[in-house]
């Protein structure tokens, strides 16, 4: 259905999931963080039985003309009350950080993985006293294939990467920008 496609598109655009090389979906670190947060603080909303109950109530409204206002009121009042409670209870750090094994270069405190508008980065856990931040290097997956353009001469390897905008998978040289090899298709071992 069209709603499925739009949901997947939204989840991908917000970086909650990404597509693997085989086109299946996998959770990103941000997706895991959000899921954990929702499960911990809104466990009744993400529960399968709750979803089934709501679907049954929608069927009652569609098939038997049940009062939709009552259904919305029964859902929204406790949800809104819990939401207000959680807004006061949940810290921004809990919603946007996770621990890392790195130590701060400036003060020696543990670094935490934070989520900003441009993706993940490492920040000092002592912020605002220490405002040290570091980029998290993007992992590139080595395919073990020599680069068709420079592999024989300079030892470049073909690595799998993702485009920034649409997160599409492509293959490029590990020596980029010295070598500009790029391909949408995975080169064969023999190329």
What does this structure look like?
The chain has three domains: 2-89, Topoisomerase I, domain 2; 93-135, no CATH class; 141-183, no CATH class. It has six helices and ten strands. It has helices at residues 2-13, 29-41, 48-64, 68-89, 92-96, 151-154, and strands at residues 17-19, 25-27, 97-103, 110-116, 119-124, 133-135, 141-146, 157-162, 169-173, 182-183. The strands form three sheets. It has a four-stranded antiparallel beta sheet with strand order 3-4-5-6. It has a four-stranded antiparallel beta sheet with strand order 7-8-9-10, with no helix packed on it. The radius of gyration is 23 Å and the shape is flat. The model has no long low-confidence stretch (mean pLDDT 86).
